[in-house]
Amino acid sequence: MASSRQQLVELLQQGVISPEHVADAEQLANVAPNKEQWQQFVNTVLLWIACISLSCAIVFFFAYNWSQMGRFLKFALVEFSLISTTLIYLKTPANNLVRVATLTLSCLLVGALMALFGQTYQTGADPWQLFFNWALIITPWALVARNSIIWLLWFVLLNITLVLYCDVHRNPFFIMFNTKVNTLWLTFAFNLASFSVWQFFSASQSWMQKSWLMRMLATLAGVSITGLAIEAVYKLDVINLLALVLWLISLVSMYYCYRIKKVDLFMLAGGCLSIIAVFIVWMEKQLGSFDNILNYIILAFFVLGLGIASAVWLKKVQREIKHEC
């Protein structure tokens, strides 16, 4: 069903509502946010800014006063902050935004504690271990909190872990051939698996049904497989041919799931962007040298043409959704 805003826009376009009655129509349709909604929005934004600022302030405080502070004082300050935020989380009623924000702050402080421990005792030279251990420690909190924001942090940490791990280990698990391709394959496999598992369990768990996290995971997987397809354009061998086939399968699957089965314009726009990126790289390879300004002009026209075609198609899909509603 179309939203109140969409219905109001359609009535205005059809001339049903005269211009002098637009303000009254907006008030009746409750389109414009009222005072309480604005206050709630501002409070939410300020709360998250405060949490992020506080976690950054603690890190910068240690960085600036590192030589003047003893190790026990450093650990005491971080642990006191971590315990304080955890206690606030436990004392805050359920389904409260402050509860989620304080637990997120606790998860960020765990990262500060891990960094402090590694810097103080020089536990290892591999930076991927910091992010892996960070994600490992906050896993119980993510399971208990059942919150998408904390899970997003968990997914980001593991993605960073994979990237840094491939940077240290040139051939992890004896797959593929170079660090760049290894990173793309691993991040694609991890994010695709995460997206599939999240999609499966979201059918029975209401807190997992927020579309923005699934879109983030799909974006991470899409960036990886698009990078592999671009790599295949430059060098088409057996492994890259497999990547190109997987890219095509991903596009077909995405079209079936988010155009035929259920419409999601964000996913469709991501697929269009992936196609444009790969096609433009292929065109750049076909044009060869860019010493001639004409090649730049040709490539620019292709970018504009594909972008316009994608926008027209997405607009058409959007209109079809409105008619179905």
TrEMBL record:
Pfam family, any one: DUF2157
Annotated DUF2157 domain residues: 11-151
Transmembrane segments: 45-66, 97-121, 127-144, 151-170, 182-201, 213-233, 239-258, 265-282, 294-314
Keywords from the UniProt entry: Membrane, Transmembrane, Transmembrane helix
Highest taxon, organism lineage: Bacteria
Name of the featured protein: DUF2157 domain-containing protein
High-level lineage: Bacteria, Pseudomonadati, Pseudomonadota, Gammaproteobacteria, Alteromonadales
